[in-house]
Each structure stands twice: as structure tokens, then as C-alpha cells.
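Re: nicotinamide-adenine-dinucleotide structure - here you go.
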Amino acid sequence: MSDKHRIECLYLSQEDLLRAGCLDLRLAMDAAERAMLAYRDGKILFPEKVVQIFDDATQERINCLPATLLPEKVCGVKWVSVFPPNPEKYGVQNLSAVIVLSEIEKGFPLAFMDGTLCSNMRVGAMGGIAAKHFARQDSSSIAFIGAGEQAKMHLIAMKAAVPTIEECRVSAKYEHEEAQFVDEMTPLFPELRFLSAGTDPEKAMSGADILVTATSAQAPLLKAAWMKPGTFYSHIGGWEDEYAVAEQCEKIVCDDWETVKHRTQTLSRMYKDGALKDEDIHADLVEVVAGEKSGRQNDEERAYFNAVGLAYVDVAIAHAMYLRALEAGQGQTVGIQETMIFQHEQLADWIRI
Ligand SMILES: NC(=O)c1ccc[n+]([C@@H]2O[C@H](COP(=O)([O-])OP(=O)(O)OC[C@H]3O[C@@H](n4cnc5c(N)ncnc54)[C@H](O)[C@@H]3O)[C@@H](O)[C@H]2O)c1
């Protein structure tokens, strides 16, 4: 039998990606910057996502998010589950994802891969790019409300973007989450000084140079008074800060303001309540990456960054990871088909009529 109709793809588990060196926030930031510029130039197809919500109260859902990178000739889809009750109910992660990549010459699959790593790295990478432009480049302290998966990845991204960080303070709903954050992050950054705030957000956040909120709460946890001049704030979750936080920031930047304003984040709430207008937004991040809008202009500015997530960036990061894994010889080639359906010699034995 000829191999002409054989279709195979590379199966990449999270561990394959990690072994290949894909937990590299610079790789992710470069891919994200290229993708944002390509999207603006019309080189990315980005249709509407498909959303299936299983519980309106808890927002348990599975979303299907496709995108095509035309210059790379790659089409991908992220299949992502978000089950917010998971950590408290089952002690397991909230978000899990898989990604399929296909080439667009014959349309055959290239890879079936873990998407959780990529998805969390995308959130970190966008925050990292924003920090490169809006955090003080002598920032020495970072502080978190929320100590979950996004918070951990954000620390890696912020260290990549602002290497001068020396101290990391963390507050969460429970002390054991803070302890787990410190336990898991200390081996990655032995040079950092960690401080658990004993669930006191003010103790963590007050006066830090970089603030991150990454919580599953829907409450105004971060107070404006805790944010000194010159601070960079990365907002990851839903409603996490009082309106006065954004109101006192000289620069508000989003991944895509048109998308953010129709969601349920603090900025979206402010927009719906008339507390924030289009002209209050300094820029979408791509305008800063392209050099069309300014980054930080002095040491006193407070900057606010909010991203809702652009799935074409996930596909771009996944593709960069796939190429790195391929080069590193990681993963397993799996067959999808050996030949076309009616060319299988045993088909008469296999058919059920
Ligand atoms: N912006 C994006 O693109 C994007 C992408 C993925 C996830 N998210 C959002 O990021 C948030 C965090 O996600 P995760 O995967 O890290 O979740 P997680 O469940 O791993 O962590 C949530 C954290 O929030 C903390 N928390 C909850 N209520 C709190 C309170 N009242 N006070 C202090 N801390 C509180 C918990 O202690 C925990 O540490 C979620 O809201 C998620 O929807 C955003």
C-alpha cells in the first residue's frame, strides 16, 4: 500500500512542550507581538468564537476559538474548558485546553497538543508586553491578589519583561494558596524575596511597583489608595478593583478595547455605568507595539492594562511552540489514517451492514 494517503500529526503533551523549552515567555511575547501586527495588517483570519455555557450561575463553559495565520499558512483552534468551581469543588484547575493545528496547503492536521500551557502563557505574554512598555524599568517589587495558575504564569512573564524585580508579595483568599504559590515559585526564582500577606490584600499591594489581580472573585478588591504614582497594574480576572483605580490612572491600555467594553471586567462595568468613555482609553496594545502610541512617559504615571484574550494570539504561540518542539524532537507522531477509506484492503471484513 502506498503512503500517499497517509495522514499523521504530532501529538504534544504538556510535558513534551516543557521538555522542549516552550515555557519561554520571550518566545510567547515575540509570537504575540508578531501576531498582533499581522492581525492589524489583515493577515489573520479570526472568526467569532463558539461558546457553550453549561451553567449560567457558575459560567462553566467550553469555547471553540479558531484562527488562521495566513503568512505561516497555519490554521488552528483552541478548545478550552473554563470551570470556575473546579479548584474549590474538586481541588483541580479551572482552565484546561487542547489545540489542533493544520496546514492550509492540503488542509491536513499538523499537531494535536496541550493548550493549557499555551493559554496561560498567552495571558502572561500580553501582560509582559504591556509591562515592557508601561512598567517602570527599575521596578523592584511585584504584588498579587490571587495566587492561582494565572498569577504564577504572570510572575514568570513579569520577570521576563522587568528583570529588576527583587520582591514578590502575594495575597489570596486562603493562606494555603499563598503558601503553595511561594512553594512552587521559589525554585524557579531563588533570588526573589517572597512575602505571603496572610490573605490581607492591602499588605501585599500597598506601594508595590507592579500590581497584578488574578482572582476568581467578582468584587472591588484592589483599592486606589494602595497604588502609588509610577505603578503598573495588570488586571486579569473579572471585577477585581474599585473604579477609582482606573480613574486615577494616566494611561489605560487594553488588548482590544472594542472587545473589553462589551465584557464584564471592571473597565466594561465602568463603560456601561458611564464612568469610562472611549476617549479615556490610551491605546490598544498593538498601537504601542507598532510605535504609534506612547508607552510610559515619566516615572509618575500610573498605567492600567486589561486583556480579555485574543485567541489568534494563542494559535500563534501554539505554532511557535510546535516549531520548537519539532526542532527538539519532542512529541509522538500519531497516525490519523493510513489510506483513504475505500482503499483499506480489509474493508469488506470491517464493514457492518
Ligand atoms: N484575561 C484573560 O485573558 C484571562 C484568561 C484566563 C483566565 N482569566 C481569569 O483569571 C482569573 C484567575 O484565573 P486562575 O486560572 O488563576 O484561577 P484560580 O482558580 O487558579 O485562582 C483564583 C485565585 O483567586 C483568588 N481569590 C478568589 N476570591 C478571592 C478574594 N475574595 N480575595 C482574594 N483572592 C481571591 C483565589 O484565592 C485564587 O488564588 C479568573 O477570573 C479567570 O477567569 C483571564
